[in-house]
Batch of 3 targets.
Target 1
Amino acid sequence: MAFKSPIRDPDRIEPRLDRQAPFIRFQCLVRQLARPEAQRRFVFADIHDLLAKLRPEEFSDAVRHWPDVTLSPFRANYLCGMVEYAAGLKRVRPPSWTADVAPLKEPWFGSNLKSLRLHLLTNSPAPFRRRNIFIDASVGTRV
């Protein structure tokens, strides 16, 4: 009789968990956005990388729920802009929770240079413009 080791191959993820991995990763990353500044460096970059690599069905599953956290209006809007932009690239509907986040009251520009404002006003991706955020790039590109 052969003995089967209770230890599993650590490089192999169970199929059920594999399907949930993007959802869990997205939830964890958004929770990190609510942490103090020093503890959330590069979180938006990590969210960008996650959203960019997901296939449409994985994307829809990963972003289906807003995590139970409170974010500043800017962080919430930036996250919603990223998710809405990625949904457009993947040709899927953005999750309904993005509509619950009110746009910023004041415009936010990705640069303090006044000479760049016209460029940012006209070239920002639409999901960000709707949220009063004016940037030069989004999911799929980096500045």
Target 2
Amino acid sequence: MPSVPGLRSPYLKVGRLVYFGRMLDKIRLHARGALPVADYVANLGKGFDARCCGFLRLHYEELKTRTLAGDLNDEALLAWCHERGGARSDEDCEIWNGFMMKRGWRDASAEILARRIRESSLESQPIQTMFDYLDFDEGRDSVAIRAWEK
């Protein structure tokens, strides 16, 4: 996949959650026509987006509409999600973050991750998770900066 200006690493948190900010970026970039269609658009609202919305207990289309209204920043959108779907505890967020940051490492997604690494010719990179893969595939080195510790 290409490097997409304005699309952040899945490791970066909004509030207490990883990935949420990346999903918001994809929504906004797509609305502006700046999200590469071939690499991203077919999966909007699916995969990790669907998991994140499920965790927040709301529908992707609902979040998309609220995001595109344009009057809330990322933190306020997360607060809106908590108002709609219910607040998550610190433990809930810790479990969410751990699950997401390790996806592809010795789990049901390991085979998919291995295939994507091969398809992207990234076998020489120290990729262990889907988040690592996304970062390397988009030109970021999350491993060198130990992004999961931030």
Target 3
Amino acid sequence: MDLIQASAVSKRFGGIAALSRAEFHAAAGEVHALIGENGAGKSTFIQILAGALRPDEGRILLRGEPFVAANPSSAQRAGVSAVFQELSLVPDLTVEQNIWFRREPLNVFGTVRPRKLRADTLALFERYRIPVTRPDIEVRRLTLAERQVVEIAKALARDPAVLILDEATSSLAPRETEWLLDLARSLADSGMLVIYISHRLGEVRHLARRITVFRNGMTVAAHDMAAVSDDEIIAEMLGRRLDRLYPERKPTATDRVALKIRDLTVGHRLQGVDLDIMEGEVVGVGGLQGHGQREMFQALFGVGRSRGSIELWGRPLHARSPRQALADGIALVPEDRRAQGLLLAKPVRENLTLSVIPRFSRAGFLDSRREKALVAEMIAFLRIKAKTPDQLAGTLSGGNQQKVIFGKMLLTEAKVLLLFDPTRGVDVGTKGEIFQLMRDLAAKGYAILFYSSDLPELVHVADRVAVLRNGRIAAVLEDGAISEANILKAAMVEGGVH
């Protein structure tokens, strides 16, 4: 018998159906993939399972008994724990305090037993081989990948019967990704049901035994993984065949240097980087996570202190803040779109125009007609799926949130674009749109520097790939030398590529 049986589950938000009679059946002891485009209903469904939402209609059985969680705590008590793509950690608390939040071991006086807290944390780390080094470090000091690992540890600490992983590898480095995939398999082997949501079909195929596909809030297919091809899965997700994920890579670079970087140094994390990005060129940045990529992009966008020289279109760039970088013509799509790129409680319209308000102002008054026209044009150009320009950004799917950030960046009219993992957690259809947009912008003379944690993206989209190792450029790959193997060799082995 299936551990979870969901039948005819529906959920509406106002006049919008997020789920429409969705079906889902999954057994204990398996990794079951749930996939679909952003906005297909996956997040709504798993929030219902995890107790964050209640269904309007339908029936869910857990272990054969009716199950509707009133809140996340009741879902966790019933054995359902979720690791959502957007993290729930408290930045000012330590790793161990976050893992056992509101479940800390207490003494008879109601105060926390620190030794027991530490012992429980270390036992959890050992049991699941969790790659976190210091349980006493504040979460605010961790990288996004490290915070993701802590979120997974927090879910595992509840010993769930059902573990939901929502894009859990999207911010992980290869080492942590391998750890999580191995962990998911071992958990399933021990009898747990792992519901795995990912836009990385290679991971899904490698890991899952069965797969359920959502589209437009409905279940459109369920398969044994071995019985269906990637092309068939993508067609079911999109409702059409995807002719090409990666656009044709036509040379568009000129001989004009758009961004000239010399001896760029950030503490000990980035050491003496030299790189030129030409007008009309897409340059990828590869390497194992944590080898200076983040520091490089932040320094170019005026975040933090750095040394070295940067020239933008032949002029010295002295950006000491993102505001100044934007004014000089350099824009960034940040690593964490929700925390760094959007005002979630503000409308799409305000998110798009916040950085360029002076363009719509005359004598201190906002030209709302001009603003409205440009917002409508950008929404149509990027095919942002928003009910109206006044829909709150936080209510959009992940892919559409990313499109809003791209729109905000394009409205600045900056011609040098820094894209940090721009397709992280984005569905395959939106990925194709982003890749095509990048090539189209390059053809118009934009210069693009982009980092990706997904090696095939670098191989298929970039004109050149600069690989960082230990804060330095280990290799710059061009033409036929751009391959996953060569990127990994340069990232891991001294003198790995010749």
